[in-house]
Every structure is written in C-alpha cells, then in structure tokens.
Amino acid sequence: MEEMNEEKKEENIDQKDESENEIIKCQKERDEYLDGWKRAKAELINYKKDEAKKFEEIVKFSREGLIRELINVLDSFDLALVSLEADADHKTQKGLYLIRSQLEDVLRKNGLERVIVSVGQPFDAALQEAIVSVESSGPSGAVVEEVEKGYLLHGKLIRPARVKVAK
Question: Which string of b and e fits 93-112 if b means at least 16 CB within 10 Å?
C-alpha cells in the first residue's frame, strides 16, 4: 500500500512538473506574442507618420509646375515695367505695379520666396548660376550683376538666380 501511495505521489509530482512546465511555456509564448504585437503596433504608427509626411510633401510641392510658369509671368511684368518707365502715363505704370504686386503676394502665400542676391557678395553656387565672368574692379568671384531673379519654393530651389561674376 505504501508503494501505491508513493507511486501516486510520484505521478502527482510528475503531473505537477508537467503543468508547471506547460505554464512556463505558455507564459513565454504569451510574452513573445505580446512583444511581437507591440513591435507591429509601433511599426504601424511609424508607417502612418511617414506616410503623413510624404503626403504633406506631395501637397506642398504639387503646385511647383504652376508656380514655375507664373514666375515667367513675373519676369514679363518686370520687362513691361522697365519699358514703361520712359512713358509719361503714370496710371498705366501704377496699375501694372499693383497687378505685379498682387501676383507676387499670391505666390508668396503659396511658399515662393525670392533668392536675395547682393552685388559685391561672393558667388553662391547653391543658389546662383554664373552665366558669364566679367572684368571688374571688385574682388574675384564676387557677384557683379543679377541678370535673372532666383526663387525658392518652401525652401527648395526651383530656379537659381542668374548672375554675372567678377574674374
């Protein structure tokens, strides 16, 4: 009888060990699944953030083609204003200046800004394009004249300022 009790005790101990091992195994699996779920959730959140940033960039620069074309209209206004300066009709001149100003304001609201070029300053290849080198009394490599204005769209160069540079 004692042997039967001992066998039952051993069976109970074996079953208890198996149950504990099974519990430990289940807890490990649970932890692995929980970690995987947390990683997947974090990756999804990061993906959503990345896609939102990409969408913002697309929206921000979607009008770039239109704005490039309107820059040419600004250039035409400048040419018209230069030719009208000799004319005595100040009303026409004032009207053109107002229209040009309105167009420039609309473009500025949409992220366009002018590249500032100062005569006498060193040439900046990141924002300027040298179209010709000229003899000058100023320092070599300095901007002598701005031939065509340059523009940035939301900080991105869309047209470099075209300049003459001193030899």
Answer: eeeeeeebeeeeeebeeebb
Per DSSP, the three-state class of 86 is coil
What is the tens place of the pLDDT at every residue in 27-47? Answer: 999 999 999 999 999 999 999
- Residue with tokens 């430990």, as numbered in its chain: 24
Going by C-beta distance under 8 Å and a sequence separation of 6 or more, which residues neighbour residue 146? 117, 119, 161, 162, 163
Count the neighbouring beta carbons within 10 Å of the beta carbon of residue 18: 10
The one-letter code for the residue type at 158 is: I
Distance of CA 79 to the CA centre of its chain: 33
User: What confidence tens digit (pLDDT) does each residue in 124-141 have?
Assistant: 989 999 998 888 877 888
Q: What's the whole-model pTM score?
A: 0.60
